[in-house]
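Need tokens for this chain, all 378 residues.
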Amino acid sequence: MRHNLKELTVLVVAGLLVLATGTAVAQETTGALAGSVSDEYGTPIAGATIQAEGAYGRITSVTDETGQYRFPRLTPGAYTVTAQLEGYAESSAEVRVALGEAVTVDFALSSATFEQEVTVYSDTVAIDFTESATASSIREWEIEYLPRGRDFTDVVTFAAGATYDTQAGGISIDGASGLENRYVIDGIDTTDPQDGLSSVPMRAEFMEEVQVKSAGYMAEYGGSTGGVINAVTRSGRNTWHGGLLLDYENMDWNGSARPELEYAPCPQCNLDDGAEAVTYDNDTETRLDPGFFIGGPILRDYLWFFGSYQPGIRNTERTVQWASFDPDTYEQDFQVDYATFNLTANIASSVLLKAGASISPSSTDGLLPNRDGQSDLP
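Here are the structure tokens for all 378 residues:
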């Protein structure tokens, strides 16, 4: 068994990420919601109760003397926001909170002598004047349907200004080099200090949202002169959800092998000084990625869990025609174990806690010689 340190990458988020009204002990992992409440004449209403209810529970706030309210830390997702005060008709709005963005919802309550409910649907895209960052978000339902590879970084190129360029060294955001980006998972910096690339491979299916910041982001992301790829893993919800995952890949489904210009012996002159176009046989390779995910409430509205596991199992067989020996077949087995688990808690409608771990260790068993048959085992 051979373990490659470059391939063996583990991210463990140990401890608690505490998100309170004015404190964050990690990078940006939430969104925000704010607004005002007034009567039909525009007079601010103090003491109105505001409830934000979504798949991750219910959080309550009260307007201040100027009629303002604020939820500084909300898990990204869809919410129903309700404003109510005795003597006024209840009003509600359907909004979506995105990672790192602040959504503004203002309410105008009308006086009511009878029970009445007014529902406001937010159909327009609101401009967040509180943030200067230029960012795009790819959410869970988009990740599920977009054509992509296995890793969460494969969806980054769907963001405006992002492209994959081998000459730029990977993902180029707004023309910057791929080595100038910064990668963050659940508030933990996972950028490789040597090459500036993502050091933690993680399945895209595990992600709640992948945000791409291209300009104007906060100083906490210092050290990046390109873009910031900020990803948040999925969490449990008030409803149970789960599923089975399966990816299968077979080299036989690919096209025929292409000729390669390789150093080869010169049969006419009996000297090893020639070069010719050679077509090597394709490797016999299969990869199977079975897996599952499950999440739900431990204590509804207060405590949730989410877990997912999906190994990648690859087998490769390569037949090599050696210059001085009969052909021989070599086999290599590779396995990577993607897994994530977290607990999310909502305490007293004011403190959001998340503790979790994400790992992706890999191992390789067996060596494959070069395809040209002119060199030894690596």
